[in-house]
Write a structure and sequence with these properties.
Layout (H helix, E strand, L loop, with lengths): L2 E6 L3 E5 L4 E5 L1 H11 L4 E4 L6 H12 L16 E7 L2 E8 L10 H8 L1 E7 L8 H4 L4 E5 L6 H7 L5 E5 L7 H9 L5 E5 L5 E5 L2 E5 L12 H13 L6 H15 L9 E3 L13
Length: about 280
């Protein structure tokens, strides 16, 4: 089976205390589900636990008909986060990764993953060591999120084709940042600026994309939706980055209108506890 998009990384039960619900989430997980909803042949690989949150996430993946060709289920608690909302803005207050630890991917699993038009991962996936084994065998997409660690970026960028970044939490010049990124050999660099839209650097060309006007319900996962829309379009026209960006912005706007990253939830009467908060 050849997949359009194979997403590797985090699946997280996002707990909203005011709703007493968990919502399906996690960057790599969201990207796979949304890509499938957009019509892509999407697959996902990540670590699930064995608690009720894990079952909810795993069953959601099956209902969404996202392929999960390799099982990695470990006894214990699934990754979970606490989400606090301020109007339409959602903020991650705490994250407990549970059983989610360093990935251990053998050659057979890599063969399955690489049989895809695009393989997508992120900084939360522990997937860095596998990038060189896939480079030049498939197109690699990587989400750096808010991270600005220069040594980390310089190490990873040469191993991927498409790089995504979220707006820095500190003051920076977006154009200069993308110029610095593009000099490190990446094919396309995309920087999300929230309500200000997106900047994309392709070679010497800097492209600006405007965010579509929307009455946002919840912005959590909007960046994942942008990535899913962008990559799904590239599986159809692999070099039309400008159109891919437009599709990504359209998808992001759509998912700002749903509660949680995907709009899929399950009630939790008991408050979800965090035992090992790794969110800093």
């Amino acid at each position: 089976m050849e997949y359009d998009i194979f997403s590797v990384g985090d699946n997280i039960a996002d707990y909203y205390p005011e709703d007493k619900k968990v919502y399906a989430g996690g960057g790599a997980y969201n990207t796979a589900v949304i890509a499938k909803r957009l019509g892509a042949k999407a697959a996902y690989y990540g670590v699930f636990g064995t608690d009720e949150n894990a079952k909810f996430l795993y069953n959601t993946l099956k209902k969404e008909k996202v392929a999960y060709p390799v099982n990695d289920i470990r006894k214990g608690r699934n990754a979970v986060s606490i989400i606090k909302r301020k109007a339409s803005e959602s903020q991650v207050e705490a994250v407990d990764k549970g059983v989610y630890k360093n990935l251990s991917i053998n050659k057979n699993v890599l063969e399955i993953i690489k049989n895809s038009k695009i393989v997508h991962s992120n900084i939360y996936a522990y997937f860095e060591d596998y990038l060189p084994k896939l480079h030049y065998k498939t197109r690699l997409s990587f989400d750096f999120s808010y991270l600005r660690n220069k040594s980390y970026i310089e190490d990873i960028i040469p191993k991927v084709d498409i790089a995504f970044f979220s707006e820095s939490k500190k003051e920076e010049n977006p154009e200069k940042f993308l110029e610095w990124i593009s000099k490190r050999g990446v094919e396309a660099a995309v920087l999300s600026l929230g309500a200000e839209g997106v900047l994309m650097k392709i070679g010497d060309q800097l492209i600006k994309g405007k965010a579509l006007p929307v009455e946002a319900v919840d912005t959590l996962g909007a960046g994942d939706a942008l990535i899913a829309g962008f990559l799904t379009y590239l599986t159809k026209e692999e070099k039309n980055y400008q159109k891919a960006l437009a599709e990504g912005l359209k998808t992001a706007a759509k998912y700002c209108k749903v509660r949680g990253a995907l709009g899929v939830s399950e009630p939790r009467e008991e408050e979800v506890k965090i035992y090992n908060n790794i969110h800093g």
